[in-house]
Write a structure and sequence with these properties.
- The chain has 195 residues and is α+β, with helices and mostly antiparallel strands.
- The protein has a single domain, classed as Glutaredoxin (3-Layer(aba) Sandwich), CATH 3.40.30.
- The chain has helices at 9-33, 74-85, 108-118, 138-143, 184-194, and strands at residues 41-43, 49-51, 59-65, 90-96, 162-165, 171-175.
- The longest helix has 25 residues, at 9-33.
- It is globular.
- It has five helices and six strands, in the order H-E-E-E-H-E-H-H-E-E-H.
């Protein structure tokens, strides 16, 4: 049984505005409630809904990736890190994003094929997201929020920005695009977190 209400034309606009405001309140409430990356669910590159809570107990390196960027060869370093430390409780989480000079224009299927054939990526890859702007995905709203993450917050400036989250899902370090995944700085932070 369905209830149909006739809404006068002048009220429809007000209802749409109220609905939009309610949605924003819900989003900001969920962000305020989030204190770790484990609070979020995102789609895998294959379209499956993945709760990041499944990575509880693991140290995670969260990276916004792109396949047509000068830093794209970092995929090899990310995969090497993943293979070296995955049995110790480490995971790399790749988030393709097309925010910077349209350097990730492909579909999820094209991105998956590129990553697996060119760089033999086996770490978890997620569906394309936005990491800046009005359509920024909630995970990146959280990661870049300076109130929630004072030491790692701030806008993403380019592809291959890396956030390190501890086993409890708290963002504990951030590395810029030019910092190689296999740099002493990144490796030291990962190894400290795995202890």
């Amino acid at each position: 049984m369905y209830l149909h209400l006739a809404v006068p034309a002048g009220i429809k606009g007000e209802m749409a505005l109220l609905t939009s405001l309610f949605g924003l309140v819900l989003l900001s409430t969920s962000l305020a409630a989030a204190s770790t990356i484990h609070a979020f669910k995102l789609k895998s590159i294959d379209g499956q809904q993945i709760p990041l809570a499944q990575f509880k107990g693991k140290v995670a390196l969260i990276v916004n990736v792109a396949s047509r960027c000068g830093f794209t060869p970092q995929y090899a370093g990310l995969e090497a890190l993943y293979n070296k430390y995955k049995d110790k409780g480490f995971v790399v989480l790749g988030f393709p994003a097309n925010n910077f000079l349209w350097q990730e224009p492909g579909t999820n299927e094209e991105i998956k094929t590129f990553c697996s054939t060119r760089y033999h990526v086996t770490f978890p890859m997620f569906a394309k997201v936005s990491v800046k702007g009005a359509d920024k995905t909630p995970l990146y709203q959280f990661l870049t929020n300076k109130k929630a993450n004072p030491s790692t917050g701030g806008e993403i400036r380019w592809n291959f920005t890396k956030f390190l989250a501890d086993r409890n899902g708290k963002a504990i370090a951030r590395f810029g695009s030019s910092v190689s995944p296999q740099s002493a700085e990144v490796i030291s932070a990962i190894e400290s977190s795995l202890r």
